[in-house]
Amino acid sequence: MLQRHDSMRHLRLEYIAAEEFKLPIQQHKEITTLEEHAFVYVLQEKVKINLQAKNVHRTGTGLCGELFLIPPNSRCMIENSNSASAHLILIRFQCTNKPTVCSFGFEQPQPLLDDVQLYCFRTPQIRSWIQDFLSDCGSSEPALYYQLQSHLYAMAAALMMYVQKPREMEKDLVAYVEQTRQYMLRKYQDAMDMEDIARLSGASPSRFYQAFRRQTGLSPHKFISKIRLDASLLLLANTESSVIDVAHSVGYPDEYYFSRLFKKHMSITPTEYVARTKKRIACLSPVLRGDLAVLGITPQLCLERGWMDEPDKALRQIESSEPELIITPPVTDEIYQALAEIAPVVMIEWKKYPWKERLMDISQLFDLSSVAERWLAYFDMKVDNARFHIQQHLGEEPVLLVHAANEHRFRIFGMQMKKMKDLFYDDLQVMPPDPAHHIGALDVTSLTDVAALDCDNVLFLVGSAKSEAFCDQLAENWKELKRSRRSKRCFFIRHDDPLLYNASAHEGLVDQTVQYLMNSGS
Q: 306 partner at 20 to 30 Å CA-CA among 155, 213, 293, 396?
């Protein structure tokens, strides 16, 4: 990855020039290098980066306050897709080998790094250094020259420290954050000192908080508040516990603080929430049950798929549960009439419109629109975070989305089917390959049929019960089928069976996507 240590001692950096430029909204700028290097500092907004060098293509995102390196003989396209102008600083410099006896006094251009990667990193005092570079107007003043050289070496040192940073340390921090997340999910009712948790990570508190946000989409404080409030919904809606008991059960010793926090997030009081959810419900679809779950509502009766094959038996079950409301997917007129004789019926044609709209419609049945909006706001935070990881790992590379039931059953999801398009191709902005634009759900019986769609990268949706050996074999078979291709990558996202089109299933898929990408070295 890096120059060998004995070579690095002889590298000389020579500042050439600095340039300030702004990128208007939806504009791009191409930067080329010959024998020189360039550091680019993102002073304002964020930018998309497309780097090409040595027949290698790297893409990523440069955030405000970050530096990245453009190596020699490269083309770098920088694009601003924000709603405001981006502001950047370009610093060009030469990197050569220091003259030695063996080199006969000749300085040869050398790459700072042996491989071509897109590293976005930060370093302290960078903003004050940038002002020094911008004050350079071609002056030959020695003091300014040595000052700029000093800054240049400091930036190169920061890059080297970032690149050389032990990967095990990063893996350890990722693992620690995951342990912390699991601990919060299990022990949310316990008192938690976030500073102690951060200190035990072995990293600085700011580094821990940043890592936690990268893995969950939320800060540790927001994450624990969300868990506690979600747990309180379930207790308030499905038990006879008082507001005081619920507050204590989810980790808030002060019930008045809990009530204020609940009202702030849900826009209704705990007592109002209880009054709107104390209703016996029969839910006749596992898809709709997942939407009710994120509102904190657990139906009195839940029927699985296939109940309409034996309608008389199902109707007896429904009647014996004494529901006050029946929520059902589309049924025949005869079954609808029979249900209506038991209790009021709401029939939801869940396949016909997006799940987010459906969630809002269901929430309105209980006058819980604010609860649904709060859940969707947190979901969007997770999606934004997952999108960042996808961009870092995939860039603009097309990826085929495939559900792998077993070695002989595959379902390819395309742009014509809402079920997975909404999440992966729309929300997460995974780039669909050209064939996916013309596909709804295509069922095939072999991996060879999947590979025939001419896409090098595949994201397999795999049930949580499937073994790692199953995934390893899929990956091996895929690479064999694509052995003539330069890039052929497999990603595996776990899901609960069955794979459903609802709010709770989509939240799980987003979490699993981030967890997989954080733990993969791809």
A: 293
